Amino acid sequence: MSIHKEVKRITTHVLQAMKARGEKITMLTAYDYSMARILDEAGVDVLLVGDSASNVMAGHETTLPITLDQMIYHAAAVVRAVKRALVVVDLPFGSYQGNSRKALESAIRIMKESGAHAVKLEGGSEVAESVARILSAGVPVMGHLGLTPQSIYKFGTYKVRAREEEEARKLKEDAQLLEELGCFSLVLEKIPATLGKEVSEQLCIPTIGIGAGRFTDGQVLVTHDLLGITKDFQPRFLRRYLDLFEVIKGATQQYIQDVRSGDFPNESEQY
């Protein structure tokens, strides 16, 4: 008789305890059932259903076009695969900015229709009202400061943020504000490592960095970048652990060759 081992779920409290112990948090993106299942079994702490699905799944140039319905579709697929990881879903562009009631409705739809555990949104003081309103409904919120890709047309560039003193000061104030409002964690994207360290030490809640140096409480990468499924994106912060683009291409070419030569299917592969 096999004894089924109970899987301990990651919760916002677990992440808080990890920060307290100085244990690093791992986060990766997931947009579909099959990949989420692999990442969850591998032991990743947090799965982010990122609006980066707009880029890697749909081929858009920015994260802006993806809709709330599409985010819910991706999130529901991921949730069905997960036994352990905390699933966080990005509120897409236009679903929370400038209207806290709309923000709350968007967050509630994500939680109800996908079964996810938390939402993430970009920005500091400008979205404080939306953050407060979502939290008042009992929905956990992860913040996101630094490079905020939904504001790409405002910035006009994907370069490192908060190098200047004024922007760094606002980022620190925003981080403090998001913690005070009740966010359980904060993503810091593409900021100087010294600032990443400063913010992480200043906050009680865990920080998760992407291009924010080694002193944040955790790290996140886009899974398709880490696995080398994407080819053109090569920022300094990215470590590619595989070159799946070439591996998959090679396997596909072998299949084509085997079918054309009559080698596939062979005797043992037919009924």
Which structural traits does this protein have?
eight-stranded parallel beta barrel, 2 domains, 271 residues, TIM Barrel, alpha/beta
Top CATH class of the largest domain:
Alpha Beta
Shape: globular
Quote the distance from N terminus to C terminus: 35 Å
CATH superfamily of the largest domain: Phosphoenolpyruvate-binding domains
Task: Quickly count the domains.
Answer: 2
Range of helix content = 40-55%
Biggest sheet: strands side by side, in what order? 1-2-3-4-5-6-7-8
Report low-confidence residues grouped into runs of 5 or more. none
Question: What about the largest sheet?
Answer: 8 strands, parallel, barrel
Q: What class do helices, strands and sheet pairing give? A: alpha/beta
> Counting H and I runs of at least 4 residues, what is the number of helices?
11
Q: If classified by CATH, what would the architecture of the largest domain be?
A: Alpha-Beta Barrel
Radius of gyration: 20 Å
Written as H for each helix and E for each strand, in order along the chain, the element string is HEHEHHEHEHEHHEHEEHH
Structure description:
With 271 residues, this protein is of the alpha/beta class. The chain has two domains: 12-240, Alpha-Beta Barrel (TIM Barrel), CATH 3.20.20.60; 246-271, no CATH class. Helices cover 42% and strands 13% of the residues. It is built from eleven helices and eight strands. Strands 1-2-3-4-5-6-7-8 form an eight-stranded parallel beta barrel, surrounded by seven helices. Helix 9 links the parallel strand 6 and strand 7. Helix 4 packs parallel to helix 5 (100-114) and helix 5 (100-114) crosses helix 6 (128-136). The two termini are 35 Å apart. The model has no long low-confidence stretch (mean pLDDT 96).
